[in-house]
Specification:
Blueprint: H1 3-74
Length: about 80
Amino acid sequence: MSPLNISVLSPILQLLKHETDCLLLLIQSYVFIADYQYMNGISTLHNMHCVLKEWNDNIENQQNTNHRFILSSTSP
């Protein structure tokens, strides 16, 4: 290769390396954001599950209490 070609290619290669590094950083950022959103979604679902389980347990306890009260009030 002639010296002219090498002197022209060097800045182009540096630019390509810079562009590649920027794309890699962008991809890593998207992966980080996706991971965060996934973990946030899992956390939200877990919290909703806990609340619904607590509500369900409270309803079951209330129904059991009502059932015991009905049985005790109908017993001779």
